Here is the input.
Amino acid sequence: MSDNKIQVDDGSQEITFILENIKYTAVVSIGRLLLPDIIDANTFNYKKHVSSVLVDSVITENIPSVETVVAQDDEFFINVFNEFSFDEEFYQFFDDIICPEICEHYIRTYYRYCVRNIPDAVEHLKSNMANTFNDIKRKYFDAFAVVEKPNLDRLGEILLGVFSWYNENSKAISKTITNALSELAEASRKIVSLVNSLDIKEYSEKEKEQLLKSYKQWGRFGWTLPPFAEYDCFHKCPSTQQEADQLIIQCCKKDNIVNLFDTLEEMCSRKKDLKEAIFCYNNRQYKACAMLLFSIIDSRIIRLQKKGEGKLDVGIRAIKKFKKLTRKAITNKDIFFFSLISSNILECLFMIFEDTENFTKETTVVNRNYIDHGMTSKPVRKTDCIKLFILLYNILELIDYIK
Here is the structure.
């Protein structure tokens, strides 16, 4: 057995083996020997692959036939594999895998050994990619008014090139890795698509009016822009509450909601209340969930008011003060997209905190006054809570921007 520990990226190693009383020397690449490009695991002949690599790697004058090597028993192949040094972690994988054929056993083990850290690395890459993409979306208020579009186009092209290279070179390691990197490449394509769609400055005044009308209408239906939705999903104005709900619920998949919860836990200062709201949501206690979210939203908007300047306003009066802050930000920054987003959020807040006129006015969306004062006869739905979680996210983003 060699004293040299084989690494994943090692080139080759000189080994010897005895076959029918003849000693052979071969220079064998461990990667070539134990990382074949397997097209179909059900029909792949592992022993023939190992035998072919050994024969092809022989450097002595006499070369055995592949058929002769294939005909050898397990002990022969074990002696060949023992020419390489594998660490304790390799043998832990070896013990966990059950294969009737020795060459398949070693190949499957070495594959597992080589890719043991790749899932974490891929998840890290995907996480970084997702964070980058979210950063772009979360800072859509002014990012695209400052950064030149050609530079963002170039960023997308670079990302596509990087991930294409990874895709081409990962086949020798794992189809699984290729699939994961394909997801990353798709994410970079979305960035390119997003950048190419950003022609905000080219909108005519009439188009801007239509967009503003659409964003406000979405707010009146209780929806603010989800962080996981397409950039232009609010560009089409829904005509009914049902239409609006159906359009957005389609993209509110479980993974997206879980990611939203994770993001909110990082953003929100009232983490205990937020965790309780998430617990209630997961356990279908939607009314309790809504009450907790109303309190978090209420608290965050109230805290924007400066202490020592008189009585702190709450409810709809606090929303009106919040509106003044956003108007000031619009005047200072003069960014159209910020105006769309802030108008959408404010319209939603006014609907949710709407005065119910002594609880006689019917509301189309979940209403804080009806819920908190126990005057609602309508059940609070899962969709209502999703709207409130997304609203909280957008409020925190907006506050972070205008500060």
In short: The mean pLDDT is 76. Residues 294 and 368 are 7 Å apart (CA to CA). The first helix runs from residue 30 to 34. The beta strands are 13-19, 22-28.
